[in-house]
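re: ur question from the group chat, yeah i did fold both. here u go
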Amino acid sequence: MGHAEQDARPEPAVQAEPDARPEQSGHPEPDHRAEPDHRTDPHYRAEPDHRADPDHRTDPDSHPEAAVPPRSDAPGAPEVPYAEARTGVAALSPRYQVGAALALAVVAVAVCVHLGMVFLHVAPSNTLTKAHGEAIDEWVYPEFEQNWKLFAPNPLQQNIAVQVRAEVQAANGEVRTTGWYDLSAEDGRAIDGNLVPSHTQQNELRRAWDFFVATHDSNNRPSGLRGALSESYLRRIVALRLDRDDAAGKGGVVDRVQVRSSTTNVTPPSWSAEKISDKPLYRVLPWWQVTAADTDGGAE
């Protein structure tokens, strides 16, 4: 019974020992042990105090890099706008710009008129050509005449050479007749090997002869005003060619000229059985008196 009573007595409560660690709060105190001691650190360098210096925001010596503007081609540099230099017509003064515009307008109108005249010349007969045919012919002939024989069903199969000879009065009064100058052969030699032959070398003499033949009958009599014009045009060309070849000699004068054509058939290929004559056919024109207008580049 005694032991039971003794066990029934409650044991004294044991008090918990207080925790020696301080309570953690939401703002932990800084640990000064991790910071280096500036007084004992040999690598420590104090930051300069600009408050005692002059205003470093405006003093270029305090920040030398601020005194030099950044290069425009440096990476990240802002783009600096610049005015583009004007070229061409835009660089001219307003007065000259107006003059250039007027000149271009005149050239454009002249080109349009020329193209229109040539188109009407080669176009089939229509209302405009019937009403203004004379004006069109005056514009086109003889320099701008068009020849479409290349596209004909039966193209030209002959070689035509234009030749000329002259009656020359020498300085001592003697009159002599030169030999025949092959003007077509001279043009051929000038064109041969020339990558960019002139229009004169290719077409002037040939077109002048075609113009003459088209405006004269088989007896070399002109038909209308165009016949007289073609004769004057051909005479002027041969007179200038003879002067270039110095046909009269030193002190001599060309009094008259005579033109002829030599027509030779093109030789057929070796595989062809066609038989044609290889003898040249000549068309000889009468003698023409040469005037000062012919040698000066004009025409009567």
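okk and heres the other one u asked abt
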Amino acid sequence: MAERATHQDRLRALEFENFVAGAGGRLLHTATLLTGEPSDPPGGYPRAERLLRAALAGTYADWDRLRGGDPYDRARRELALRFAREARRHRRPRGGPLDRLTPVERLVLVLRLYEEVGEEQTAALLGLPADRIRAVCARAMTTLRAAGAAATGHGTTGAGHGTARTGRGAARAGHGTAAPEPASRRGAAAPGSGAAAPGPGPGQEPPPGPRGAP
């Protein structure tokens, strides 16, 4: 019985390690967008790394219950909810492309445009009405368009009807960098993120972190 349990633990750890190797870079870049930190140079985003480690720990703790589910969705949910709980800690500008936005604006914008989560799904995840999600997203894009216009000296193309286009001439941020592009492949490592976020190896436990909301 003990030998079987050990084998299952090793298999679970290996599966999780493979997941982190494929999706950790993308999740880390998502975390830097949320915390408002720049994604370059590697290692210059300690708040994002702490946030991601805690989210991955919660995902690993629920790994056995994810059979047939999408671990990326679970990890993204952990990341978003943990950021929402500590959003007040991330109000100070830190040089990232979205640091002109409030934490709530960053969270909604990243989920809706970068992660391409539907409006209703975003509303359900954050416990907010859909019209509030729509309004926050529109306000965030207005801020980015204004910042881009101030930085370049001319207006930039935004989206019609109060929502932003994703991946095609998105509004530019005040630092001369583009607004977050949508994820085309969840396993792709994000630019400037260096390597995938660390995960537990076979037989090892993940980094300590609080459990996420069920």
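fwiw on the second one: The helical segments are 2-35, 46-61, 71-85, 103-114, 119-126, 130-152. The chain has a mean pLDDT of 79. idk if thats what u expected
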